[in-house]
Amino acid sequence: MGQTSKAVAGGLLALALAGGGAVPAFAGNGQQDRQAQAKTKAVDFAGTVALSNCSGSVVRTPKSKPGDPALVLTNGHCIESGFPAAGEVIVDQPSTRTFKLLDAKANAVATLKASKVSYATMTDTDITLYQLTSSYRDITEKYKIKPLELEDGHPVKGRPITVVSGFWKKTYSCRIDGFVHRIKEGEWTWKDSVRYTPECKTIGGTSGSPVIDRKTGKVTAVNNTGNEDGERCTLNNPCEIDRKGRVTVRKGINYAQETYGIVPCVGKAGKIDLGRKGCKLPRPAATR
């Protein structure tokens, strides 16, 4: 979607974007900025993955067990079966998709394989969760790489963040500028989205990248879209809608979907259980 759907559309177009991936530095300078950076956690590529057309990461919840099947998080619009329609929710769909697991220096150290799409939707949010054939213990012991942990609380305005793209092997650093009541892009609407400050100039192929809160070192959101041409609420040009229905267009600004809402929905053995207490992810129409 937005700046990220280009890579979904096709490999040739994605390759054409390669020249546009400048990596912005952390905004600011001087002693005050150095002190601020000293209080943040270093962010690297360990635990991120590259998909055929997007980025992603191996993620766990605070209560995940080492023997649980590992989960990979990316965008709903990155699923191999095509963009889910507005209102569509996919659960337990067989998949054999593969992912290149990266180490801290962005070297591909393994190919991980999915057993199924545990959950995917582009309604209210834009996420896909794949269950892997490997457990967290398998990945940690074989490749010495720990999964990224999902933050279980709402993102914080002003926090320094880094978007880590396994597809391009690049990072983008900025801050959380604020939160958007509703984002509309084409037929899809997303709730309570994260807006980046302008330094995060994410591009096609960064879809599904984990957004790391540099204070906690945890995943606070998943990168998914941006307004490319200044158009209003169209594909690749999401618009913001406030609580009074007023529409704002911010050309060149990029967005992410919060991920703390995933945590209550992950049950025993890493199973997505939409009936768990506190789980508010959209459900398939037949179970609503």
Could you outline the blueprint of secondary structure elements for this entry?
Layout: H1 5-9, H2 11-16, H3 30-38, E1 48-50, E2 55-60, E3 69-74, E4 89-94, E5 98-102, E6 108-121, E7 127-135, H4 136-143, E8 148-149, E9 160-165, E10 170-185, E11 188-196, E12 210-213, E13 219-226, E14 239-241, E15 247-248, E16 254-258
Parallel strand pairs: 2-8
Antiparallel strand pairs: 1-2, 1-5, 2-3, 3-7, 4-6, 5-6, 6-7, 9-10, 9-12, 10-11, 10-14, 11-16, 12-13, 13-16, 14-15
Please supply descriptive tags for the structure shown above:
Thrombin, subunit H, mainly beta, 2 domains, 36% strand, disordered N terminus, 288 residues
- In CATH terms, the superfamily of the largest domain is Trypsin-like serine proteases
Rg for CA atoms: 18 Å
Q: Structural class, from helix and strand content?
A: mainly beta
- Runs in which pLDDT lies below 50 for 5 or more consecutive residues are 3-30, 32-36
> In percent, how much strand structure appears in the residues?
35-45%
Distance between the termini: 27 Å
| The level-1 CATH class of the largest domain | Mainly Beta
Instruction: Compute the average pLDDT.
Output: 89
Indicate the CATH topology of the largest domain: Thrombin, subunit H
Report helical residue fraction.
under 10%
